[in-house]
Amino acid sequence: MARSQIKERPNEAPTEPGTIISIRGLVNRFGKQVVHDGLDLDVRAGEVLGVVGGSGSGKSVLLRTIVGLNRPYAGRIVVLGEDTAAMSEREWQQLQQRWGVLFQSGALFSSLTVAENIQVPMKEHTRLPKKFADEVTALKIALVGLPPEAAGKYPSELSGGMKKRAGLARALALDPEILFLDEPTAGLDPIGASAFDTLIRDLQQSLGLTVFMVTHDLDSLHAICDRIAVLVDKKIKVGTMAEMLADPHPWIREYFHGPRARAAGIG
Amino acid sequence: MAQQASLKKSGEGDGLRLELSGRLVTATLMPLVAEFDRLPARGRATLDLTRLEALDTAGAWLIERTEARFAAAGAKLEIVGAKPALAKLMARVGKAGKPQALPPPERYSPLVFVAKVGAATISVFQQAGDLIAFFGAIVTTIVRVVLRPSRMRFTSLVSHIEQVGLNALPIVGLLTLLIGVVLAYQGVDQLRAYGGEIFTVNLVGISVLREMGILLTAIMVAGRSGSAFTAQIGTMQVNEEVDAMRTLALDPIEALVLPRIFALIIAVPLLTVFADFMGILGGGAMTCLLIDLSPAQFLRQLNNAVTVKTFFVGLIKAPVFAFLIGMVGCFEGLRVKGSAESVGRLTTQSVVEAIFLVIVFDALFSILFSYLGI
User: In this prediction, does ipTM exceed 0.90?
Assistant: First the structure.
């Protein structure tokens, strides 16, 4: 491995033990606009981390950078103990199979049925016998709480909530260790959103997942997140809900003590 | 992952003892599926998971389905020694219930073919009907705008003229120039056998002015601008911009369709004149080179061959074709529903339909002109 090529900065914070994703000194910029400037973040194994921040603060950019859809300007990202910048194509592909991503509107392949969507990663990366793969697919559909008849439907025939569940089933197809969620409850009604929260918590606990969740939903933060990461001033602040409530930063105060936070029973 | 899963068997029948070790996960369980399926479902067997280190849902399902197979055969598979985390996962998989079989993929039958032919036939007529209704809507809107010219959106019109006319000049010019060259080559070659090379000038002049100039222009415009209209309006449909216009009491036909159609009606005849010129330039230059004609001789022969009428017979078709291309482009754009996928599909369809209609109308014009003796 060529990991030694990456120089650790002398003043870099050490990585805590039990860390599954470690980001050090991340800089993202588009043209002249700097989105992240020296961002450090540790995600612990087995936790649900909620990432919040104002519009345009780079929440989705952070998620896209970790999963490799966006190349960072500078900084080091270590996932599951491996430096993502120093990887060969093959190692990268293997790492990709150890995480699943749920995009905001599901991003299901529109020309395939739900079952076929879930089987895309299975067919590509495993050689399971067809019958067993079909059974596992049906199991994933049941696990995310979709009715069995949804298997043969096309994404255009599903409601928004069902699309997200189907997207979640596809993200879980290879039983990943890390689950990335981009605004999983956006666009769902409050009942659907809280059902989805419960589902994520339940799957996270029974499958032993680590969840990295970008969200705007204060209820989700309150209900299922172990820790909260707030993107402010191009950096990130991490803490529990109690720590966030006590934080003096004006944006964080506004966010966690605003009228909506009070309505969610937080502030 | 380096570590594999393995299954150790000892004992027989009631005393069958199985021991799983390693990591039973999607990546490693492939060889074990067949091994589990071969286990005879008899008596009481025990599956020891003490040495199993990792399990995922696919692995849990493999154990679960084997347990169910034993139960169905009146036997029992007892599972012992699972670590708490693994037991939790197995309980969760068990709770999801027996997964229902996936629906079988659609089978092909001869009846499906018949049904498809029927559906396609109906949709052709339906679409033709819709297109005629759209034509009616455009005509009534045109009448309304003509009565109140202040409703015409001139900024939009000028911008569309630039896009469909001015910006198309290079490609239309180059294309007809080359077609002129090709016509001259073929003409000289064939007419030489009769000693009538000079009539290549007639061939080039008449075919470019009457057919080639306008037809190539129309096909280029359909491919360039008709498709752009469908894509632009289709994208607006997907973004619900067209619905937003309707709620703001803006008529999409007046605001989106008319400027585009008028832009084409103005630009296509101008492009045709340019195309005629370039076609004759290309054909003429080539003829002069091939049969040693001076430009003056060429012009004299061209003057004998074509009249102003030849030119106008070609040009008169331009506004009609322009209207057809614009109408089809906007019609397909407004038919977009829902996803971005349908924008792509309808854009393709719009180009095919526009070119089809252009050629059908060209044939109709030919019949009409021959009746009129033009």
Answer: no
